[in-house]
Structures are given as C-alpha cells and as structure tokens.
Design goal:
This protein is an all-alpha fold and about 750 residues long. It contains 31 helices and 2 strands. It has a two-stranded antiparallel sheet with strand order 1-2. Helix 18 runs parallel beside helix 20 and helix 23 crosses helix 25. The longest helix has about 60 residues. The two termini are about 65 Å apart.
Length: about 750
C-alpha cells in the first residue's frame, strides 16, 4: 500500500492544466483509491482471521492451563498425602535413593550411547556414500535423518550435562569426540539444500518420492524447533519449575532452522533465473514477458505438482507461500531495474506496462492482487510515465535551446555576407534552422510514440505546442528589441539595418511555411504534417483540445508574419522617412514632393523584395504600408508648425498628395488590393471636410465622420481643428457636445482606430 507522494506543482504546471488534466487526475486518484480500499479490505479480512485464530488458540490455551493446574493440584495433594504417610527421615531417604537411581540410569544410558557413537556415525557415513551414488533417489535419506537426529540429541544431552560442571577440559574433549558428527551433519545439510534448490526440477521429473521424503524431514525438524522454542520460552518465564524437569527434556536442545533454510532455498534457486531474465531484458527491452516465462511455469509446477498432489504438508500452503516469495522477488527485480541509473527509457516503459499483464497471469493461477502483498512496482506507473515524458521534454527543451542559441547567434552576426539566411526552392528568404526544428519535433514525437501510451504522447504534444507558442513570442521580442534600436536612434547609426529588414522578411516567410499547405503538390506544411502524425497516437478526447491548440498556433503564425511586415513598414517610416514626415502640413510642405519620394521609395522596396518574399505576403505588405502611410499622413496634423491657412490653398496640395498615392494604388498588379486600399483612403475626404467646413457645419461634419468611423478619436479631431487657421474654442466645444449626444454603433475596427 506504499504510494509515492503526489506533488501538485508537478502535476499542474500551468493554469491550463487545471482544466486539461483535472478529469484524468480524478480518474487516476479514483483508481488508486479503489486499489487502496481493496488492499485495506483484504488486510482487514486477514487481520480479523488472525485475531479470530489467536482468540481461539488463547481460549484453548486457557483450557489447557486450567487442566494442567487441576492436575498439578492433584499431584500436589497426592504428594502431601504421601509425605504425611511417611516420616520425614524415611521420605528424605527414599527421595535420595530415587535420585541416585535416576542418575545411575542416565549415566548408564549415556555410557552406552558414547560407546556405540563412533560406530553409528560410521553407519550414517556409509548410507550417505550409498546415496551419493544415486542422487536421483537417495534411498537412505529418511534413515540418515533419523539416525542423525538421534546422534545429535545424544551430543546435545552430553554437552548440556557437561556444561553444568566446572571442568572446561572435559568440554573440549567432548567437542573433539563429536567433531566427526559435525562433518556428517554438514554433508547431510548440503543434500537437503540440494533437494530444496531442485524441487521444481524434481517435480517436473516426477521424482515425487524424494520430494515427499524431503517434506517429511523438514516437517519433523519444524516440529522439533517449535518444541525447543516452547521449552526455551518456558525456561525464561518459569525458571524455578523448569529446573525440576531438566532431566526429562530429551531431544534437541537448539533450533536447527530447516524450514527457514528451505524457504531461503526457494529464493536462492530463483535468483539466477531472475539474473538471466535481467540480462535478456536489458538486451531486448521488448522481451520482458518472454524472459519471465519461467516464473509462471515454476508457479504452475508448484500448483499442479506439489499443491494438488499434496506432496507437502497441507498446513504449509506451499503454493501461496511459494507465490508470495516469488512475488516479492519480482517486486525487487523490477524496482531494481527501475532505479538503476543505466536503465533506458524503453526498459522503464516496458516495466510500466508489465503490472497489468502480470496480475492477469497471477489471477489465472488463482491469486488476486491484494493476496500477494506489495504492488509489484509500488504503484509507480504514473510516476514512471511522468518521468519518461519529462525526459523527452527535457531533450526537447535542450534541442530548442540549442536551435534558439544558433538563431540568436546568426541574427547577431547578420551583417556578414548573405545575412546568415538561405533561400528555399522558390527563392524565398528563410531561416537556416527551421527545417532542423521541425525534424527534431518529429523525432521527439516518435520517441513518445514508441511508448505506445497515449498519455505520454499527449504530454509531449502539449509541451511542443507550448514551446512553439513561446518561440513565436521570443522571435517577436528579439525582432522588436532590435528594431527599437533603429527607431529610437539619435545618432542615425544604420549598421545592420538592411540585414534586419531581410530577417523580418525571412521570419515572415518562416511563419507562412509552417502553415501554407500546398494542395496542388499534395505537400503539407510543417504544422499540418505534425498534426497528421500525432492524430492517430492520441485519444479522441484529447484530439478535440488539440484542434484548438493547432488553430491557436496557426493564428499565431499568421499574426507574427503580419507583424513582421508591419514592423518592416514601421522601420521604413522611422528610418527612411524620418526627416520627411515632420514637414507635412507645415509651410515647408507646400514646396516639397515628399509624397512622391515616399511612394518611389516604397516601390523600390516592393521591387527588391517581391522575389524573396512569400507570394501570399506581397499584397499584405503593400496593404500594411498603405495603411501605415495613411495613418502617418493623418497624424501629421500634430507636427510642430502644422497649420492650414486658406490663403495657402492647402486643398490643392492635399489633392496632389492623394493623387500621387492613388496613382500608385492604381498601378498595382492586383486590382482588388488597389481598390481595397483606395476604399480605405476615402477617409481623407472626411479629413478634408473637417478642415474646410464652415464653423457652424463642423458639428454635423464630425457627426457624419463619427457615424462612418465609430472609433474616430476625439483627441485627433481636436488636433485637426486646432490646425485650422480660424480655430476657436467654441468649435471644439460644439464637437464635444455633439459627440455626447451621439449613440454610435460599434462595429469592426477601422483605420481611424490607429490614428491617435
């Protein structure tokens, strides 16, 4: 019933785990609770049976003690009556004569025994030599045991009597005299151990006679040991009474432990088999069941050959005894492999799946799990599975860390020739490590699949999902931090700027490569291929959640690729157009052609990157740039010195800027993209309306603007109004009053949400 402690921080590492793993944890803990309950019930039943048996024995003992007490009272009464019938002098004389007679008989018996001792030992040696010539039958086994028992009893009696004397020399003499017997006993014990170690083989060879004789010897020794232990217990508790009966305690004086040695021999005989199984298993992790076939064959031999044929005493319950010993050895065998540092993950996984097969086989032999004692691997299945899963995740993290370190190094050294990038078969810029990343992810998935356990695969797939999301975030942060260096640069140092733009393009391409399935060529993108490979390995319940994870990742790739294009456009304005944008709507603006120069610069970018940027991103890049240009253009009303004077004919200048932009939009290869951009730029009409409307009409103009663009920000409207040369505070108050009266319906985000 030993169960490893449960560490919630390990089981619930992330907030999502509370929802994702709660059901599985409930099921797992319910299973463990059921197992513990069954073990407790079995233990309680065994304890009740033991208690009942103990109470029965206690009751019988009380009856026996009462009977002995009554008999002793009778003896004492008879003795008292006898003493009363005899005078004191006569009784003492009779008692002295009686003791002398008993001592004389004891001495005479000991003399005869010692005189014939050597001859009897020689006879036993001869019988042992005869048995040595016929190991399979050992016809003299019982006679040898009988004679040895008598000889050992003679030796024990002699040694006990000599120990009461004060002459150590006599003890040494007797020990030398009995030394020959010790050698014979050693030979006999070796024969007994040999039989005990070979019982399975003897039963399989149908040598039942030798097995039965062995059992008779062990049973006799067991009874002798019980008698000795009972006498020793009596000597401790009733020393005064026991000393009166020392002369009648014939038989063995010490515990010889044949029964215990027999049980140890069961272990010793199985140990080489387990060691052989271990070697075979370490060479072939998939062959655990095959390597342990002997285990169940031996137990079946005990059941059919010993238990059913009653070759052993019934009270031994030899089959259950054998099974319990074997079960403990199986437990130690498996735990030893699990805790061996050299054990591979494949061996551990095979052991994790073994208990179910093991208990199914033991049930066929007649044993329920709770009858065998400790769980065969200490209920460590969940722990071992988690450790194996964590091992794969550890390798996963190590690989990802190495790849990320290489990517960061390449990015930091992007100024070298080629910018540390490569091109794919379509000529698109690509990161050199993306292929290695997905190959490594497939390898980790295959390692999890080798476990043939859905929970392992699901845990690894979860980890991969998480790491892929983290990579998206890490890439965006790294590019963001590096871009900020140029956006916030005061010195204008542009070293590494153009390679940074290349990396933004390559990163955007990488994201599309992860999700762009080529249906015409029948080629799946990395993410779809990964999904296809793990789908058959997980449960349907997990697959429902995995679909949501795949969708989230797919959206993340789209978002990151779009972000890269937006950051590219932002860098163009922050670096290339840094000196241009502050001039818009200022007096200098009227004499410049900044819009034409900006459009020309962007056309060059599109021309330069069209062949190395994924085709699906070209139109997105143009749309992002057009939106960014519009946002920056409208936001220029906040430029220092921005002012619209009617005498300057600003409407014609704005129209000129817009005409230049629309001319570019009309020239785009994809008319749909051009039309969509022009539709977005229609917001400039409302912008122009705020600039040209009469003071009284401004609230209505604002209302129309706000109705079309619900996310129009009042702070920007205020900046526009302040840029008019006829601005008055009342104009702004009127707009705010109208804004308070309007009930605007919110809709999809418009371009004006970006204009601050």
């Amino acid at each position: 019933m030993d169960i490893p402690p449960v560490h919630l921080p390990t089981l619930l590492r992330h907030p999502d785990d509370l929802f994702d793993k709660l059901s599985a944890l409930k099921t797992e803990f319910a299973r463990k609770k059921s197992l513990i309950d069954s073990q407790l019930r079995a233990g309680l039943r065994d304890q009740l049976e033991t208690t009942q048996s103990g109470m029965t024995h206690l009751s019988d003992s009380q009856k026996t003690l009462q009977s002995i007490k009554e008999e002793m009272i009778k003896i004492d009464k008879i003795a008292s009556e006898s003493q009363n019938q005899i005078t004191g002098t006569d009784f003492a004389t009779i008692n002295l004569v009686s003791q002398a007679h008993r001592n004389f008989n004891a001495v005479e018996t000991m003399r005869r025994n010692l005189e014939g001792f050597a001859e009897r030992v020689a006879e036993v040696e001869e019988m042992l030599r005869e048995d040595e010539a016929d190991y399979e039958a050992m016809p003299n086994l019982l006679r040898v045991h009988y004679e040895l028992t008598r000889l050992r009893n003679i030796r024990d009696d002699a040694m006990e009597q000599i120990s009461r004397g004060d002459d150590p020399g006599l003890r040494v003499t007797l020990e030398d005299y009995f030394e020959r017997l010790d050698g014979v006993v050693r030979v006999f014990d070796e024969r007994i151990e040999l039989i005990a170690m070979s019982l399975i083989t003897l039963v399989q060879a149908e040598n039942e006679s030798l097995v039965v004789r062995f059992a008779l010897i062990v049973e006799a020794e067991e009874k002798s040991d019980q008698r000795v232990m009972a006498l020793q217990e009596a000597l401790k508790d009733h020393r005064e009474i026991a000393t009166r009966f020392q002369s009648i305690t014939d038989g063995a004086k010490t515990v010889r432990g044949y029964k215990e040695r027999f049980l140890e021999c069961i272990k010793d005989a199985a140990a080489p088999q387990f060691e052989k199984s271990r070697q075979e298993f370490m060479e072939d992790p998939g062959g655990l069941e095959k390597s342990l076939r002997w285990y169940f064959n031996d137990l079946n031999t005990v059941r059919l050959g010993m238990e059913q044929k009653q070759l052993m005493p019934r009270k031994w319950k030899i089959f259950k005894t054998w099974a319990v010993i074997f079960h403990q050895m199986m437990h130690d065998f498996l735990i030893g492999i699990v805790e061996d540092p050299e054990t591979s993950s494949s061996h551990t996984l095979e052991i994790v799946g073994w208990p179910e097969k093991y208990y199914r086989k033991m049930l066929k032999l007649g044993f329920k799990q709770e009858e065998l004692g400790v769980q065969v691997i200490d209920n460590r299945e969940t722990e071992l599975v988690r450790d194996f899963r964590q091992l794969i995740i550890k390798f996963l993290d190590e690989w990802i860390d190495r790849i990320w370190a290489a990517e960061r190094k390449d990015f930091a050294e992007r100024g070298v020739d080629g910018g540390n990038l490569e091109t794919d078969e379509y000529g698109y810029f690509r990161n050199k490590n993306l292929i290695d990343l997905w190959r490594m992810l497939r390898e980790q998935l295959e390692a999890a699949a080798n476990s043939k356990r859905a929970d392992v695969v699901e845990g690894v797939v979860d980890a991969i999902f998480q790491r892929l999301r983290q990579r998206q975030q890490a890439w965006q942060k790294m590019l963001e931090d590096e871009s900020a260096r140029y956006e916030n640069s005061i010195t204008g140092d542009l070293e590494g700027f153009q390679p940074l733009q290349d990396w933004l393009v390559a990163t955007a391409n990488d994201q599309i490569a992860c999700i762009d399935d080529n249906e015409e060529e029948g080629r799946l993108a990395y993410l779809s291929d990964f999904r296809k490979k793990f789908s058959p390995l997980v449960t349907p319940q997990y697959m429902d959640r995995a679909e949501a994870e795949v969708t989230t990742l797919r959206d993340g790739y789209v978002d990151l690729s779009t972000w890269c294009m937006a950051k590219f456009a932002s860098l163009v304005f922050s670096v290339d157009f840094r000196t241009v944008m502050p001039d818009f709507f200022t007096p200098k603006w009227y004499t410049t052609t900044h819009m034409a120069r900006m459009i020309a610069t962007f056309e060059e970018y599109v021309s330069d990157y069209r062949m190395v940027l994924h085709h699906s991103l070209v139109d997105i890049f143009i749309e992002i740039f057009a939106d960014e240009l519009l946002v920056r253009y409208l936001g220029s009303v906040r430029n220092k010195g921005a002012k619209f004077r009617r005498v300057d004919n600003f409407q014609d200048k704005i129209f000129d800027d817009l005409s230049t932009a629309f001319e570019f939009f009309n020239s785009l290869p994809n008319p749909e993209v051009g039309n969509a951009i022009k539709e977005t730029w229609r917001v400039t009409e409302a912008f122009l309306g705020l600039l040209t409307a009469e003071k009284e009409q401004i609230p209505d103009t604002f209302a129309g603007f706000k109705t079309s663009y619900w996310d129009l920000q009042i702070s920007w409207v205020e900046a526009v109004l302040r840029s008019r040369d006829d601005f008055e505070r009342s104009m702004l108050n009127a707009v705010k009053a109208r804004a308070a009266q309007m009930d605007v319906v919110r809709g999809p985000e418009t371009i004006m949400s970006k204009v601050k």
